[in-house]
Specification:
This protein is α/β, with parallel strands linked by helices. It has 24 helices and 13 strands. Helix 4 links the parallel strand 3 and strand 4.
């Protein structure tokens, strides 16, 4: 279930089914879908002379070239295609849509093809963003597709786009899964029902359930609001949290003294061997890894510069233009790691993260409260990091008698934190507080789990910054190994009560099955690492897990999305 290869298959079909020199026209959404899995060099090798946007009407007419169009079946893209066909700039047109076409859309194309230039119309189901082999998202952004209407209910546009994207994933992988959803989530159940209806309505496309048994498990972010709030210390997660990754692109234009060619860089596993090997390394190991790359080149070039720090590496790279030319990816990562190091120091993230991990993993109210008061009073800590820590406190100690949530909110305000930022604390409790959650993520809701939590804290940990384990990791491990079967049957009911799917948590676990986990409300890079490691761990049992979500969150985007929604 390599989701990158699924989209690459469609991309190669689009550009190779048509021979000779050609133009590739994309729309606003298919442009990043293609750029995540392909390069300009690859496209050029397949005789793609030009890549442009179909909305761009300033293109030159080149009737001697063929045109390949890959667009989403949206009103805007159909209108652009209609305008293109009325006044064609190329000789022949081969039109590919990223999802299921309605009959009316085909009729519209025929009516507007007065010049009879359309040679082919097909559906190629690449209507989602494939980030890594085990991670995809639908691309819902508050500015274009706000997730919530009011409270825990779907915005109709977001629901429609999610059904389209998730159905395209299933069609691309040729799967018709059994659907399960988190019992306490009306949004997860609604998505499951809409998807099930579509599979029934388009049964000729989805086929039967023969082949590898596949489970689609639809989760709700509200049941684990903690993971997106934490500072994670693996490379991919840190890049998204501290700098931001937008469909594989990282904007470094704000970095002090950045070179012009490095103002925007791309991350892709299949185009970047260093990133593929290092994306799940923690920050300490990452420095060692990139230093080995630099040392390797230095020995080959017989240079004797002394390299002992990130700054030394950056100076070495800048001093050797041929190093940048021959090893662009390593040069890129030296720049990225240098910026991460600068931000960790500037924002005092080690101190922030230590408190975050304590709040997420250990029950020690008095100690946490004292540390949190000191953090809020520290002028060197960014306001958003203070708010994140108070949110974690509020979630953990919400039901603790005598908690100090109101005091901490006042303390934030008196230390200059904006009122809108402070308000996110109450929003988060309404969104993912104890009343809304299905799981005891803090293990403090009854006397037995409290005791388990206390002993967990006494045992210590190898690294105070990486104590937290995402709830998703615990769930998947239980399901695959067949642990707590009745618990998961209750928590993840089957959408069709009359169906007889393979039992969750049977004595053999979920071996020899494909599992697609989709999170309404977004996933995180930390959860991506969980899935990648689990796939590697259970490869001999033929377990394959794919993770997707409505978006990929860092703490900033997670809080921003919720702040725009009213939760009664």
């Amino acid at each position: 279930m390599d989701i990158i290869k699924a989209v690459q298959y469609y991309t190669n079909r689009i550009i190779t089914d048509t021979s000779s020199m050609k133009v590739l026209l994309l729309d606003r959404e298919t442009t990043p879908i293609i750029s995540l899995v392909s390069t300009q060099t690859h496209l050029l090798s397949k005789e793609v002379y030009l890549v442009d946007r179909i909305e761009n009407r300033q293109r030159d007419a080149m009737r001697h070239l063929k045109c390949v169009c890959f667009v989403r079946p949206t009103d805007a893209s159909l209108q652009a295609l209609r305008d293109e066909l009325r006044s064609p700039k190329y000789g022949d047109y081969y039109v590919y849509f990223s999802n299921i076409l309605k009959k009316s859309m085909v009729e519209m194309l025929a009516e507007n093809d007065e010049n009879e230039v359309v040679r082919e119309v097909q559906e190629f189901f690449a209507d989602f963003y494939a980030v890594t082999p085990c991670l995809f998202h639908i691309g819902l952004e508050p500015s274009t597709h706000p997730l919530f209407a009011e409270g825990h209910s779907w915005n109709p546009g977001a629901l429609g786009r999610t059904v389209q994207g998730l159905s395209a994933v299933l069609l691309a992988l040729k799967r018709r899964p059994n659907i399960r959803y988190e019992r306490n989530s009306a949004m997860a159940q609604r998505l499951g029902r809409e998807l099930d209806y579509l599979m029934e309505h388009e049964s000729s496309l989805f086929g039967s359930t023969s082949g590898s048994p596949t489970q689609l498990v639809i989760l709700d972010r509200k049941n684990d609001p903690v993971t997106p709030l934490l500072t994670h210390w693996t490379y991919h997660a840190m890049l998204h949290e501290l700098i931001g990754i937008n469909n594989g692109r990282i904007d470094l234009s704000h970095v002090p003294d950045i070179r012009p060619e490095s103002k925007e860089v791309m991350l892709a596993q299949d185009q970047d061997s260093f990133f593929k090997q290092s994306q799940f390394l923690n920050f300490g190991d990452l420095g060692v890894s990139v230093k080995e790359f630099v040392d390797s080149y230095q020995s080959q070039s017989q240079s004797h510069h002394k390299i002992e720090s990130i700054s030394d590496m950056k100076r070495f790279v800048e001093a050797y233009p041929e190093f940048r030319k021959l090893s662009g990816n390593v040069s890129k990562h030296v720049t990225l790691i240098g910026e991460l190091s600068r931000l960790v120091s500037q924002r005092h993230l080690l101190a922030v993260s230590e408190l975050e991990q304590s709040l997420a993993c250990n029950e020690q109210h008095g100690t946490d409260l004292r540390a949190l008061r000191a953090l809020i009073a520290n002028p060197k800590i960014q306001p958003e990091n203070k708010v994140r820590c108070v949110v974690l406190y509020a979630l953990r100690y919400e039901q603790t008698q005598g908690n100090a949530v109101n005091e901490l909110k006042q303390l934030l305000s008196s230390n200059g934190v904006d009122a809108d930022m402070v308000s996110i604390i109450d929003v988060m409790l309404r969104y993912g507080g104890a009343r809304e959650r299905q799981s005891d993520i803090f293990q403090n809701e009854n006397i037995f789990s409290r005791g388990k939590n206390i002993f967990k804290g006494l045992q210590g940990t190898e690294n105070v910054y990486t104590q937290h384990t995402p709830a998703l990791a615990i769930m998947l491990e239980d399901l695959v190994r067949g642990r707590q079967g009745l618990h998961w049957q209750e928590r993840l009911p089957n959408l069709d009560p009359n169906a007889r799917p393979p039992m969750l948590g049977n004595e053999n676990g979920m071996f020899n099955q494909d599992i697609i986990v989709f999170v309404v409300g977004g996933v995180t890079m930390e959860e991506e690492m969980t899935v990648a490691k689990l796939n590697a761990k259970f490869v001999s049992q033929n377990v394959r897990v794919l993770l997707g979500g409505t978006s990929i969150h860092n703490s900033r985007t997670f809080m921003s999305e919720l702040s725009t929604t009213f939760f009664p």
